[in-house]
From TrEMBL:
Highest taxon, organism lineage: Bacteria
Reaction equation(s) it catalyzes: [protein]-peptidylproline (omega=180) = [protein]-peptidylproline (omega=0)
Protein name: Peptidyl-prolyl cis-trans isomerase
A Pfam family per the record: FKBP_N
InterPro entries documented for this protein: PPIase_dom_sf, PPIase_FKBP_dom, PPIase_FKBP_N
One BP term from GO: protein folding
Every PPIase FKBP-type domain range: 72-157
Length: 158
């Protein structure tokens, strides 16, 4: 009897996981399409630049530093992350506390983008899903989402 219960539970769990996978995949496809349209429209902003990878960025405040961090450096930043609809999913600014981390420990869009900055810069990044979480959801971030971050660089390897 217990073997049957275990088998039924395993089938239910497998069914839920398969359903979640296909729902996540469909959501990712929709979000990727919407995100691509958003990024194409965003290029009409003359202040927005694009890297070869597709990362879009605009400098909001020009810093007075001269050194750019490397991917292996540790940086101290303030950031505010939103989805294209304005939903805030994370913000050190709202928490009132900067954060430090290794640039090689974050999503590709951050690693690439922050290396373009110098201390004192405040930059807005428009990160395509392929440079973010791809087709996976992450916390409050739906699968396939374009991520928008305002990032202020306070320090490198401090």
């Amino acid at each position: 009897m217990s073997k049957i219960i275990v088998a039924v539970l395993l089938l239910i769990i497998a069914s839920v996981l398969v359903n979640r996978y296909f729902t996540n995949r469909k959501s990712a496809e929709v979000n990727i399409t919407v995100g691509q349209e958003y990024l194409i429209e965003n290029l009409k902003n003359v202040n927005v630049q694009t890297t070869d990878s597709g990362l879009q960025y605009e400098t909001l405040v020009q810093g007075d530093g001269s050194v750019h961090p490397k991917a292996t450096d540790r940086v101290t930043v303030h950031y505010h992350g939103t989805l294209i609809d304005g939903t805030v999913f994370d913000s050190s600014v709202e928490r009132g506390q900067t954060i430090s981390f290794g640039l090689n420990q974050v999503i590709k869009g951050w690693t690439e983008g922050v290396q373009l900055m110098v201390v004192g810069d405040k930059t807005r990044f428009y990160i395509p899903s392929k440079l973010g979480y791809g087709t996976q959801a992450a916390g409050k971030i739906p699968a396939g989402s374009v991520l928008i971050f305002e990032v202020e660089l306070f320090g490198i390897n401090e």
